[in-house]
Write a structure and sequence with these properties.
309 residues, alpha/beta, 7-stranded mixed beta sheet, 5-stranded parallel beta sheet, 19 strands, 23% helix, elongated
Length: 309
């Protein structure tokens, strides 16, 4: 049988679960497809110290468990499966989980984004133990330590410059002999006394037992190898929005992020479909900003549904 809902939320990170909380309290009885990446990127974050309300910090998975429990308390129904197909061409919208079809009067897309990783030995094992993809989230933990930033774009330069507030030294490792970053960002980084550059170099392995102690490097020109002792590795080679499901269904920008209408709203190119969190945000990418847009998406959906009645 086809199940019909007022509101379906796809995704269960800070944006999706905040949307669920607000929608539940508005008596929309949302159905949330949690997906295999339940809880979003905070599930691979150890200490979260920049989320308001937790002065002593909180573990990422613990914070997301609280989000989930609060959404369920007010009536959200959470399905522990991935949405596999959508059709937004007419209302009610159609969403499939395998062969099971669901229909919805409105939809909030909150599938987030995934950091691009290097895929090298030691990286996954030491993620959250010295390997990170977010300087704003984790830089505070690396006071007076030596760090590596991998990348050559604006994001990498922003991460490197931010980390100089805490680190004793930041080494930018870039596979080419010139940066892809904008001239102004490149100049700021290259002029900074705490930042050094290793050109034509890649990181091939992260070392450490319980925490990062160093990296293996390789020259892209000669193939020669070397070792560098560091306390942390920040991978800054970009993020990929989780929007493969919505290609040909929503307007996406050249990098795959959902395009929002009217600037401040959460309206997408399809009336009745809204987007929140990192799936539409390539600038801030913080749990607190994702939660904020989740509340906005729920309010937008509630008002839009009321207008349809």
């Amino acid at each position: 049988m086809t199940q019909h809902e007022k509101l379906i939320i796809i995704g269960s990170g800070p944006a999706g679960l905040t949307a669920a909380l607000y929608a539940s309290r508005a008596d929309l009885d949302p159905l949330v497809f949690e997906g295999s990446a339940a809880g979003g990127q905070l599930m691979i974050t150890t200490d979260v110290e920049n989320y308001p309300g937790f002065p002593d910090g909180i573990l990422g998975p613990e914070l997301m468990a609280k989000f989930r429990a609060q959404a369920e308390r007010f009536g959200s129904t959470i399905v522990e499966r991935d949405a596999t197909r959508v059709d937004f061409s007419e209302r009610p919208f159609r969403i499939w989980v395998g062969d099971q079809e669901y229909r919805a009067d409105s939809v909030i897309v909150a599938t987030g984004a995934t950091a691009k990783w290097l895929g090298i030995p030691g990286e996954e094992k030491l993620t959250g133990k010295g390997v990170s993809a977010c300087a704003t989230c984790d830089g505070f933990f690396f006071r007076n330590q030596d760090l590596v930033v991998v990348g050559g774009g604006d994001t990498a330069m922003e991460e490197a410059l931010f980390l100089t507030k805490f680190a004793s030294k930041v080494t930018v490792v870039h596979r080419r002999d010139e940066l892809r970053a904008s001239k102004i960002m490149a100049k700021r980084a290259m002029d900074h006394e705490k930042i050094e550059f290793l050109w034509d170099t890649i990181v091939t392995e992260v070392h450490g037992d319980g925490k990062v102690t160093g990296v293996s490097l390789e020259s892209t020109k000669t193939g020669g190898g070397s070792e560098l002792a560091v306390d942390g590795v920040f991978v800054a080679i970009g993020h990929k929005p989780n929007t493969d499901l919505f290609i040909d269904h929503l307007d996406l920008d050249p990098n795959g992020y959902v395009i929002l209408r009217d600037g401040a709203s959460t309206y997408t190119s399809v009336d009745g479909v809204f987007a929140a969190g990192d799936v539409a945000d390539h600038v801030y990418r913080q749990a607190v900003t994702a939660a904020g847009t989740g509340s906005r998406a729920a309010i937008d959906a509630e008002r839009w549904l009321a207008s349809q009645e």
